[in-house]
Design brief:
By secondary structure, the protein is an alpha/beta fold. It has twelve helices and 14 strands. 47% of the residues are buried. It binds nicotinamide-adenine-dinucleotide (NAD).
Length: 356
């Protein structure tokens, strides 16, 4: 089992270190190799995703990724910015399926901005298509408007598009995932307005014929955004396109109250994956030893489950995380009165101890 470890920038290095310690404590044999990515790679080689890093990622079974970015790179031309490394990895590894669980741990219900009874026990899995849609569709650019409300005016445009195979494969990923959960999928679209998402809905409905054991319903994205804050527990697996998924998965993350707790996985057709916390490089707290490493540690658990087929080890890590929360240990982002405030490394130590 070969793991490419790409810590990146800011708190990335601190939190990945803890996840690597946890992986190292399991009775499993990994080959782990570290490489620079993002701003750190730009400093070292002038590029956010150097050839050597990409090669390492391609050859690995899985990539454990920290986070990239810092405000100081905002003035660089787009292609050189740290965030381009993530897009490059997604594209080169064909990572089309993004899994974003939004789990509200019993011990942290108070951290949500919603009433505890709305989020207690929340366990949603958002599956976002990651390599298509308006984020990648061509043509895009700036031009003189040929028609519309202001012909002749300067305009910018992007193209929303999906092919049948792209929709079919993400729908299958969602139905398969639902089989391992409560067998319900909500497909989110905007079929009432957009051709692309009428097609999305039609194709998802066709693919559903192969999964008669799964219950499928369709919801418009505006309604889904409302329902997520009104009655989030109604959802189980949600499947949607790249842009809607981007927005809804962050909304769902906030229901749980803490971005420092949420892992993510991005997979390709051969189950090779990139595993990273849902948050960014948090330059505001980098180097202070206070970042919450649990999202990254839980991402490592997802890596064991999805890419390395080590379900038992994945559960061991997840149970250890629950145990440290029950012990009342909290990094500052999830701290509340009556609990014990710990730093990044101490939290890593506690998870290691709780692994048993
Ligand atoms: P962010 O997620 O880095 O931080 C948002 C807020 O959450 C900050 O106050 C931060 O301190 C806090 N936070 C985030 N993770 C935390 C953790 N593990 N523990 C405790 N607190 C945590 O988002 P941002 O501030 O908008 O972006 C910072 C940089 O990260 C930017 O350069 C952005 O482009 C980049 N970014 C990278 C990724 C990625 O690598 N996948 C994702 C999002 C943003």
């Amino acid at each position: 089992m070969k793991i490419a470890v790409l810590p990146g920038d800011g708190i990335g290095t601190e939190i990945v270190e803890q996840a690597v310690r946890v992986l190292g404590a399991l009775d499993l044999k990994f080959e782990m190799e570290t490489a620079v990515v993002g701003g750190a790679a730009y400093e070292a080689s002038g590029r956010p995703l150097p050839e050597a890093t990409l090669k390492l990622a391609k050859e690995a079974d899985a990539v454990l990724f920290g986070a990239v970015g810092d405000w100081k790179y905002d003035k660089l031309e787009r292609a050189l910015r740290p965030e381009q490394a993530i897009l490059g990895l997604r594209k080169n590894l064909g990572l089309f399926a993004n899994f974003r669980p939004a789990i509200c741990y019993e011990q942290l219900t108070h951290a949500s901005s919603l009433k505890p009874e709305l989020v207690a026990g929340l366990d949603i899995l958002i599956i976002r298509e990651l390599t298509g849609d308006i984020y990648f569709g061509q043509p895009r650019g700036k031009r003189t408007s040929p028609d519309g409300n202001f012909p002749g005016a300067e305009e910018a445009f992007d193209t929303m598009r999906y092919t049948r195979p792209e929709i079919e494969r993400i729908a299958r990923v969602a139905f398969e995932a639902a089989r391992k959960r409560s067998k319900r999928v909500t497909s989110v679209d905007k079929a009432n307005v957009l051709e692309t998402f009428q097609f999305w809905k039609d194709v998802v409905t066709e693919v559903h014929k192969d999964y008669p054991d799964i219950e499928l319903d369709h919801m418009y994205v505006d309604n889904a955004a409302m329902q997520l804050v009104k009655a989030p527990k109604k959802f189980d697996v949600v499947v949607t396109g790249n842009m809607f998924g981007d927005i809804l998965s962050d909304e769902a993350a906030m229901l749980t109250g803490s971005i420092g707790m949420l892992p993510s996985a991005s997979l390709n057709a051969s189950k090779q994956g990139l595993y990273e916390p849902s948050h960014g490089s948090a330059p505001d707290i980098a180097g202070k030893g206070v970042a919450n490493p649990l999202a990254t540690i839980l991402s490592a658990a997802m890596m064991l489950r999805f890419s390395l087929e080590q379900e038992e080890a994945a559960q061991r890590i997840e149970n250890a995380v629950k145990k440290v929360l029950s012990q009342g240990l909290r990094t500052p982002d999830i701290y509340s009165e009556g609990t014990t405030r710990v730093g990044t490394r101490e939290m890593g130590d506690a998870v290691l101890k709780a692994l048993g």
